[in-house]
């Protein structure tokens, strides 16, 4: 069974509370999401394998530690997942970035795919799939299935706020994928929005409502 990593660092909780406030404007919302993404990214990358490399400091030669292997890929679920990319790129500046476009049908709440562009050789990389909102779990589960169809085997799901329903669905359908999240909220409402949540993350990031 996959693990749920709850990132309850006090600064993350503080920043998330400001994001939840309906008076918080897009500019601040985006900046806070970027900052929180760095904290969550720190946890996600905590066990990246290191290897020894010979280098020379201005003083002498030494054996230094460097991240080994083919490194990482970041894959945001459009649109809201884009809000977590810049923070992750601060930590992983050479990571390749793919995009999966999904939107939820407003009546059925089921995800609809409209775009997929992934970097070559993604199956060799650790993939960090980003989406701040894990509500019913439909979007994340479909995106995870798309990544697996392309051979990805080492995937971590990075969210901000999750509903218990979404967590359960992802864990049932993708038991190999660990989930990193800053808050587990109470439930979904009749429109499949997270309660108390923070509203529509895409609209709040891009100012579309
Ligand atoms: C939101 C959110 C997730 C999805 C979560 O996207 O960013 O992708 O809903 O809901 P789920 O877990 O029930 O699938 P939305 O469809 O509103 O698209 P947007 O990001 O383009 O606004
Ligand atoms: N998508 C969002 O942006 N917010 C929710 O609460 C649920 C789905």
Description of the molecule:
This protein is of the alpha/beta class and 209 residues long. It has one domain: Rossmann fold, CATH 3.40.50.2020. It is built from six helices and 15 strands. The protein has helices spanning 10-20, 26-44, 85-91, 138-149, 164-173, 201-206; strands spanning 4-6, 50-56, 61-67, 72-78, 96-97, 99-104, 111-117, 126-130, 133-134, 155-158, 161-162, 178-181, 183-184, 187-188, 194-195. Strands 1, 4, 5, 6, 7, 8, 10 and 12 form an eight-stranded mixed beta sheet that branches. Strand 2 and strand 3 form a beta hairpin. Helix 1 runs antiparallel to helix 2. It is globular, with a radius of gyration of 18 Å. The protein starts with a strand and ends with a helix. The relative contact order is 0.18. Bound molecules: 1-O-pyrophosphono-5-O-phosphono-alpha-D-ribofuranose and uracil. Uracil binds at residues 80, 133, 135, 193-194, 197, 200-202.
Supply the key terms.
6 helices; single chain; 15 strands; 30% strand; alpha/beta; 3-stranded parallel sheet; binds uracil; Rossmann fold; 209 residues; 8-stranded mixed sheet
According to DSSP, the number of beta strands is 15
Q: At the third CATH level, what is the topology name? A: Rossmann fold
Average pLDDT for all residues: 96
The portion of residues forming beta strands comes to 25-35%
Oligomer: single chain
- Report the C-alpha radius of gyration, rounded: 18 Å
Give the overall form. Answer: globular
Distance between the termini: 38 Å
CATH first level: Alpha Beta
Given helix and strand content, the structural type is alpha/beta
Q: What number of domains? A: 1
Order of helices and strands: EHHEEEHEEEEEHEEHEEEEH
């Amino acid at each position: 069974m996959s693990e749920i990593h709850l990132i309850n660092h006090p600064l993350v909780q503080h920043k998330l509370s400001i994001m939840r406030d309906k008076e918080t404007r897009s500019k601040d919302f985006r900046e806070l999401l970027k900052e929180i993404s760095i904290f969550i990214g720190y946890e996600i990358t905590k066990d990246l394998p290191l290897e020894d490399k010979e280098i020379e400091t201005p003083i002498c030669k030494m054996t230094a530690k460097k991240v080994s292997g083919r490194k990482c890929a970041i894959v945001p679920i459009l649109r809201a997942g884009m809000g977590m990319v810049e923070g992750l790129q601060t930590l992983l500046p050479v990571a390749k970035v793919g995009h999966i476009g999904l939107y939820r049908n407003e009546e059925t709440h089921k995800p609809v795919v409209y775009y997929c562009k992934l970097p070559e050789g993604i199956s060799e990389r650790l993939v960090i799939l980003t989406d701040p909102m894990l509500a019913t779990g439909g979007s994340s589960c479909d995106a995870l299935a798309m990544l697996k169809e392309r051979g990805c085997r080492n995937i971590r799901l990075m969210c901000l706020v999750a509903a218990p329903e979404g967590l359960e669905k992802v864990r049932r359908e993708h038991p190999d994928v660990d989930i990193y999240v800053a808050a587990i909220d109470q439930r979904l409402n009749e429109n499949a929005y997270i309660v108390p949540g923070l509203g529509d993350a895409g609209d709040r990031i891009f100012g579309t409502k």
